[in-house]
Design a protein that fits this description.
Elements: E1 15-20, E2 24-28, E3 41-45, H1 47-57, E4 63-70, H2 73-85, E5 88-95, E6 108-112, E7 121-125, H3 141-147, E8 150-156, H4 157-161, H5 166-179, E9 183-187, H6 192-195, H7 200-212, E10 217-219, H8 234-250, E11 256-266, E12 269-278, E13 281-284, E14 288-292, H9 299-312, H10 317-331, H11 343-350
Parallel strand pairs: 1-4, 1-8, 2-6, 4-5, 8-9, 9-10, 10-11
Antiparallel strand pairs: 2-3, 6-7, 11-12, 12-13, 12-14
Helix pairs in contact: 1-9, 9-10, 10-11
């Protein structure tokens, strides 16, 4: 049984899902290295955006992104990439690059895939970005959610960490979303580089605890969880369950807590799985050992979009968790932050299908 029997009906909504977050330009040296590259492939990406991008690209739902970009050539390139994905970009705020005051910019993310013993590398260049300067009141959330009803609203710890008040913006949006009947999800998504000069893990946890009080769904384990597991064996899974149960006890407002499970054996091989707590029960997707990886970035975001799709479709927690793990696994077989999987591929893998050639 679904934990969300009172979801806003499709015909009473404009969007199935809306995300609040920063969209960056990703520059990928393909099989090469950042330090020796002479050309880059470009993609758009961002922790919160990747979730609704997957909901549109793979699951064919109606999605939109709210955020901010500087109105210059890079910003318009990012917009073009968003629009080509089918995600609605009409809620983006545009900053005039010639406006007096602080000089703002668009975020860049250089990403090296890694291979075997050489781990992947991400170099984010996101200081003074337009999204980091979003303030409470910059969006009329009441108008957005009343005039364009949304079934599911998603944001996360990457956006909340960008600026001194972006966490308050996230809370402002979450409260408005809930008032208008949307399910609200929040991904903890801790990034050490975003917190190293502003209090580190302790400050991140403090902000996440404040924001978690307004969520219905949490991705990640806030209380008592383990960051890295030696293996996805019964002992390791037991530790994750303990962390999930502690989080559920600390935040009775949460209806669902879910997280992908990953153990990095090498840049090219990971153990992978997923787990979900809903209504006091824990559900686990099949564990995959030594799964081959092409590009690990975005696997957790694709896990989130798979789970959200399941719940938006009226599925139960187990079916939704299986979809989440399958979508995350497939997303890591292609380059870029975003999933290139099809719904039929996700359904096949979630149902136990393999990777034999289809002709």
């Amino acid at each position: 049984m679904t934990p969300f029997p009172d979801l806003l009906p499709v015909d009473a909504s404009r969007y199935d899902a809306l995300a609040l977050g920063e969209v960056m330009l990703r520059l990928d040296p393909l099989e090469g290295r950042i330090r020796t590259a002479r050309s880059f492939s470009v993609h758009e990406g961002g922790g919160e955006y990747n979730v609704i991008r997957g909901l549109r690209g793979c699951f064919r739902l109606r999605t939109a992104v709210a955020g901010a970009l500087v109105d210059n050539e890079v910003g318009r390139l990012i917009e073009s990439l968003i629009l080509s994905s089918g995600v609605d970009a009409s809620l983006l705020k545009w900053t005039d690059p010639e406006a007096p005051g602080e000089s703002l910019r668009n975020g860049l993310n250089f990403t090296e895939r890694g291979f075997g013993l050489r781990g992947s590398i991400g170099v984010s260049d996101r200081g003074y970005t337009a999204a980091s300067r979003i303030r409470p009141g910059d969006f009329d959330w009441e108008a957005i959610f009343s005039q364009s009803p949304v079934r599911w609203f998603h944001t996360g710890g990457v956006f909340a960490a960008l600026g001194d008040v972006t966490g308050d913006v996230a809370i402002e949006a979450m409260l408005a979303a809930k008032r208008h009947g949307a399910i609200v999800s929040y991904d903890l998504n801790y990034r050490p580089s975003l917190w190293k000069n502003t209090g580190g893990l302790e400050k991140a946890q403090e902000l996440n605890r404040r924001i978690a009080a307004y969520a219905d769904v949490m991705f990640g384990v806030l209380e008592g969880g383990v960051k890295k597991l030696p293996s996805l064996d019964d002992q390791g899974i037991s530790e994750v369950r303990t962390g999930i149960e502690a989080t559920a006890a600390a935040f009775p407002n949460l209806k669902v807590i879910a997280t992908p499970l990953r153990v990095v054996k090498s840049a090219s091989r990971n153990d992978w799985g997923g787990i979900c707590w809903a209504k006091g029960e824990i559900f686990e997707a099949p564990r995959r050992s030594e799964m081959e990886i092409l590009d690990r970035v975005g696997g957790g975001d694709s896990f989130a979009s798979g789970l959200i799709y399941g719940f938006l479709s009226g599925l139960g927690a187990l079916e939704s968790t299986n979809l989440a793990a399958a979508h995350g696994a497939l997303a890591m077989t292609t380059p870029g932050d975003n999933s290139m999987a099809s719904l039929s591929e996700v359904l096949k893998l979630a149902g136990g299908g393999g990777s034999a050639v289809e002709r």
